Amino acid sequence: MSSYRLRSFSHWLLALFLTFTAVGQVAAQDAATVSKEGVTPGATAAAAPAAAAGSAAGATDAGAVAAGDALFKGNCAQCHAVNDVVVGPALAGIDKRRPLPWIIKWVKNSSKVVASGDEYAVKLFNQYQKQQMPSFALSDAEITSIVAYVKSEEGKGGKTPTAQGQPTADSGQTAAAGDDAAGSGKYINVVLIVLIVVLIVLVVTLVIIANIMKDVLRGRKDLDGRDVEILDQKTDWMGVLKSGWFKGVVGTLFVLVVLYESIQGIMAVGLSQGYQPAQPIAFSHKLHAGEHQINCAYCHTSVYKSKSANIPSANICMNCHSQIKTTSPEIKKIYRAIQRQQPIQWVRIHNLPDLAYFNHSQHTQVGGIECQTCHGPIQNMDVVYQYSALTMGWCINCHRETPLNTKGNGYYDNLVKLHNEANAGAPFTVSSNGGTECSKCHY
């Protein structure tokens, strides 16, 4: 009987350890729903099938809301909040102010909607100091899921927008869109710490109880030989370390770890997402493109008409800085380069392999893609870093998700007709036009 009690304590210890380990893993998985790089366009399309079929008002499916939550935090939260004004307007009630098709067009290419003369779009554009919203390569289902998420969050803190879509917040409001996400992360960290502390206390308590019971049992005279043997037994750690099964387990784990790290290393060859080198001159895109709203094409003059988006020459800088901040230490570096007739040695950040062909004008001029689609929130970067993966899979996924604007272009009429007959009305995307063929990028 005594030996049974001792064995039960070891079982309790093992059960508690496994339970708390499982709880910790679940909490850690919940905390890691949104990564730094955001949500890749198209990555959550499968999570929101119900959202694509219904209107925004009816899209309350839990899967659609969850997908919208991840997409919102990865793509929208830098400029928008649901119930508060941040950089752009509060989004609460957007499904009542504008129909869903209009919202989809706006998210995919707001500049085009403004250029079309849409009264609401022009008014919104002027109201927010003509700050251009970047285009997003999101599918209709993904945008619908974002609207579903916004609808589910309406009225949860912050100021509620009025019927005209204008929030009642005062002009000094500076609410951060990421507070909810940060709060959730802190909460989960606290829960994990509490669970670890409780586990340690329980383990120590059980060890103490086990030792006390051993001492009590040693004082009993009715124990048989088997019980005494169990009480006095000691673990032969050297025997365990020298055993064949232990060496096999350690060897297997070692091989698996080396194999995993090798595969990860091989897969990461040529990838430099997050690369953020120091530049010879501290140029801030946040100051120039963000605060002063200088158009990208003013400095990168060939972005709409050439294969490459050129690095601006020093004379473009001097268009302004011959009169502005002429004594700044960083501006003096530009003067020094001009005097020495030497180019500024900027460090290249975005670099595709030579085997891949990419044309900026094809994407910006013909496709109407905004700079932020690939380069991320460049207007918020003091020091530029590589925002997107720029892998072949990343590009192909974008081609599969990005619809082509074929209206008014007779070249596409027969292609669209054949496509619709074969694909039951599925969107005519870049991929539908041969955008995933090998020879498009490799020839």
From TrEMBL:
Keywords: Heme, Iron, Membrane, Metal-binding, Signal, Transmembrane, Transmembrane helix. The keyword Cell membrane does not apply. PROSITE patterns: CYTC. One of its GO terms (molecular function) is metal ion binding. It comes from the Bacteria. Residues 1-28 form the signal peptide. It holds the Pfam family Cytochrom_C. The keyword Transport does not apply. Residues 63-154 form the Cytochrome c domain. The chain crosses the membrane at residues 187-212, 244-263. Residues 168-177 have a biased composition (Low complexity). Residues 155-177 are annotated as: Disordered. This is C-type cytochrome. It comes from Hymenobacter jeollabukensis. The lineage of its organism: Bacteria, Pseudomonadati, Bacteroidota, Cytophagia, Cytophagales.
